[in-house]
């Protein structure tokens, strides 16, 4: 069934019927159903530039039972529902393109449990990633996934998008830490998948299927995540190279030596200069590439690991290598990476942050390709990202008032996505597909897999109400 | 739709129609289609005792295209197909209960690639786990999952069952290492899911959904797995405790100290004695529990980790603690765990190896419960397993000629499964559901989730030909 077929049965038109609004207000209370322009406007967009659509209503439930009642009603009446946490996603995954209800889970924000004995935490959907990480840290435990948006993003949002982050190489991504979920099907059934165990093979792995399903299969209301013992310490170093190719060789050599370090991040020359303009950190503006490397664990292990990585960088011919002397020094170095996006964002009104991923050995080749493509299209682009897992964030900035700038940026990204796929890579490593990457999903998956996605979608959501138009719709 | 409803449309009766056999022979060659009693008998059973069903034919394809042709034909004609690797699974997951074709993938057994740069390997479905591990080790890389059946089990079988193993606590299970799959849908479409990347969120996570789907959704023909740098060294120690409760406290304390070691395995007193009878290793026959602990990594880290764990065991009041002096000593200690199953198996003709998993702090309570239940039913049971992840293997032995021994064993297991679920555990941690655990799946998942599994099954397998009667059928 086509997107057309699914979504054409949905309610559309200005506003929701009065009786539906009355029911919604009955479920969650008048003050938690927003319909006025000023109230719903913040929920017509997320962190993705250029995408916007007004919902008919924004509904903020406080309990799983309320979520269930809302979804059952929506299925009964064919009303689109777009679940949303903080709206910090970068793929336009929470844009309510078909109107209807934006279902905001941020009132369900309690940390229900942190268990040292079981190395797990149980949180409600709207808990922020940082709140979860802090609650774990207070008991000496690490919640490993650390997406850039962690201070505002919600755990359910992280799960829905399978968020990544800076620790991916050593620790994996959100998927690797989701043990169990409480979800509500679009038809209203409340269901628990997985549980409190790292090992549990009873039934299809719905927990992992729901992770990364971008709010199209079910609404996540509660999450059980695995935690790790907190590493005793961590440290960071920085190396400058003449070009990305050398930085790539250093990364390969570090890993060939038997280390999967916690941090291997890179900035290209344009990004280094944008960060230096923004934050005056004393970075080497002439360097073709900056490589941040870091590790965590016991103090001796970390010291040895850092020295080994520094030695590799020196051997490869780095222009300069510096190891942080203490935690503050480490944080200062990491700041160069963390402020890349804000540094680039102030160059022009619109910042398009992309997320292609290629096999690790293709990293330098891909960055060269990005440079060639963006030059051809006369587009301003800088690239930073996760060198350890081949995850690049080419970032294009432009002024929408500048003629066909947007069109040129889009043309460049189209070529970049196809180039990444040609290198055995993917159109999105950690940001998701949403509405933003939808035009390239068929090229990535092929028609048979796209058809299978639609059949799976229907198995969960027969009326097609949940985040219509996105993955599997 | 019920199992009845799905399977009643399938072909049944003695043998396959002559034209179907002719087509199958045309696809794979006469010698790769087996139909005679003696030839198909080995494929009427797997490593699970008491389950047996004769297939109409055994077909051994050599290529993905052949798999596709066979499946398309089977869907067209409504013929059940049960995919199978080595048949080493312990859940009766490859028993062809509805006859039809057993599709054996063991001819497709090539290691296609081991990449040091990308830390991955690509293998055909029928490659054994040990062959993959050896090919990786030859390039200094570790394939982390290590199911007990690794010398015979196939990688596709491991993926289909989401096999676990002894390294689960530190390294996770098969699911954590599957990067990409080539699969054939029951309707014949060949499809690639995932790829060569650790980070890739384009589309639903079919790779993980297929992992653990027990051959009910698609036939896996090729697997891309992630590898790790090979740890420089590893070592093992053993501690004896008066009772399992003390061993459980040691495990909790070890983890509370911030270590997730590579090995934390236990044997109860009965298992210690069975192993000692079998192998004369000089184990402490009076001990209530034997705890094996081990770790891997750099030599200094491993030595410190082992000493720390030994100290914890001593502090808890272990009757004795020994650290292996070298690799040979380590292997000797691990042998006690590895020979538990053969040691127990020779006690009686039938060995029922179970696989309940409970939250780690409930381990000792669960073992006590198992002892009480098996005593009540007059059943001989010993328990060993993975203390680090709460995965227990209570093993019941009996003589089928001994009156109602089988009935008593089944009654005991029924109580054991319900007890595990009552403690927040599951009916299977790593062996799978298959036909063996099917009676308890509804209790574990509930009716809504079972119905969802069936809808997902139909999305992949509209004719219901693939491993009918198992998960989702």
Automatic annotation (TrEMBL), chains A, B:
<dbReference type="InterPro" id="IPR016166">
    <property type="entry name" value="FAD-bd_PCMH"/>
</dbReference>
<dbReference type="InterPro" id="IPR051914">
    <property type="entry name" value="FAD-linked_OxidoTrans_Type4"/>
</dbReference>
<dbReference type="InterPro" id="IPR016164">
    <property type="entry name" value="FAD-linked_Oxase-like_C"/>
</dbReference>
<dbReference type="InterPro" id="IPR036318">
    <property type="entry name" value="FAD-bd_PCMH-like_sf"/>
</dbReference>
<keyword id="KW-0274">FAD</keyword>
<keyword id="KW-0560">Oxidoreductase</keyword>
<protein>
    <submittedName>
        <fullName>FAD-binding protein</fullName>
    </submittedName>
</protein>
<dbReference type="Pfam" id="PF01565">
    <property type="entry name" value="FAD_binding_4"/>
</dbReference>
<feature type="domain" description="FAD-binding PCMH-type">
    <location>
        <begin position="51"/>
        <end position="230"/>
    </location>
</feature>
<dbReference type="Pfam" id="PF02913">
    <property type="entry name" value="FAD-oxidase_C"/>
</dbReference>
<dbReference type="InterPro" id="IPR016169">
    <property type="entry name" value="FAD-bd_PCMH_sub2"/>
</dbReference>
<dbReference type="InterPro" id="IPR006094">
    <property type="entry name" value="Oxid_FAD_bind_N"/>
</dbReference>
<dbReference type="InterPro" id="IPR016171">
    <property type="entry name" value="Vanillyl_alc_oxidase_C-sub2"/>
</dbReference>
<dbReference type="InterPro" id="IPR004113">
    <property type="entry name" value="FAD-bd_oxidored_4_C"/>
</dbReference>
<keyword id="KW-0285">Flavoprotein</keyword>
